[in-house]
Request: fold
Amino acid sequence: MRFIRRLSACYWKNNRFSQRFQSNGRPTAPLGSRFLLDPDKVFDHNMWDHIQWSQEDEERAAEKAIENSLVRIQPELQDKYEREASKHWNEFYKTHQNNFFKDRNWLFMEFPEILPEEEREHCMKIDTRLCEDDHLCENNPAVKTSSVHNFGSCSDDSAVNLQSVKQSGKEFPGSDATYRILEVGCGAGNSVFPILRALCNIPRVFLYCCDFASKAVELVKSHPFFDPSRCFAFVHDVCDDTSPYPFPEESLDVILLIFVLASVHPDRTQGIINRLARLLKPGGMILFRDRGRYDVTQLRFKKGFCLSENFYMRRDGTRVYFFTKDEVHNLFSSAGLIEVQNEMVRRLQVNRKKRVKIHRVWIQSKFQKPLWLTRSKQEYALHNHSS
Ligand SMILES: C[S@@+](CC[C@H](N)C(=O)[O-])C[C@H]1O[C@@H](n2cnc3c(N)ncnc32)[C@H](O)[C@@H]1O
Reply:
């Protein structure tokens, strides 16, 4: 026990430091704050924010994407990759374990809405929190209030309403929390653990996380800082709309989608978002970050890896789609959600040694469920939109 505590103190301490300093000991610039004003200084730093693309840059990128999409993967093989999607991600996590993605330490800076409003100021200063001391979490009775047992309310009907569950007195994981967060496609927990770290001193907030790769969920659950009293991790395929969630509809405050929707077939995306929107409480939010059109990783694909327009297969069998801002807007608006933020973020990464410049593009968005959007109204809106 003492060993775990020491390990824990060390983890928080290291994490704190990794956010404040680079390996060369220089302090890091906060995300989004480094502007390239003088092009001659491009090799002075390894990263520049808010890069503007010229029309020429845009056209050159479009040409590359057209060129690498000329040869498409055969339809039979495409079906096979769709059927075996979870198998490939499972292999991915067996190979890389939790060593591939970095902890998403930018989460609270970019998405303060992850936590209840009254806690947001603390999160912005997350690296100065006193969380090095795990006694703080262990001894705080408030953080142990959530129950993770006796779940049975949603197993036969994923569409049950929170009110009816409450009235029936049935419990589900996190049923006594007042604020609930779900991360879809959580992978090995690179967002889960920064969130759990932030929750350590905040009572009645509960985190759910799911992934269709069982190996990923296993990695999350076996992590020394996984806390089943604050978090419920489960295997779930978001493309399977018959598969129930372990909580009722309209029970979530926040849904996090971090680099996950790009992994699913673009024909499935709208259905996924419609269903996720139903899980949100009125006023709840979806926080989204994913691959943007003409990111360097799209332009680097060789011919023969394209599945359909802007959708590719990687060598390991996992797939990736590259979104535009308008597509993202349409997807979430069609599900009845209101745009709060929707930005195409362009960043320039620089390899100073090799004198190479790399353009990164992603989309960052926030969409909110209107307070008046109840389930029946959402169904009405969806029906009218599709007809
Ligand atoms: C690029 S990784 C991102 C992981 C994590 N969100 C992060 O930011 O580190 C994409 C994740 O989505 C998961 N995923 C892909 N398709 C999914 C689906 N249909 N249902 C659930 N998870 C899925 C993969 O297994 C993988 O863990």
Summary: The two ends are 60 Å apart (CA to CA). The CA atoms of residues 141 and 351 lie 49 Å apart.
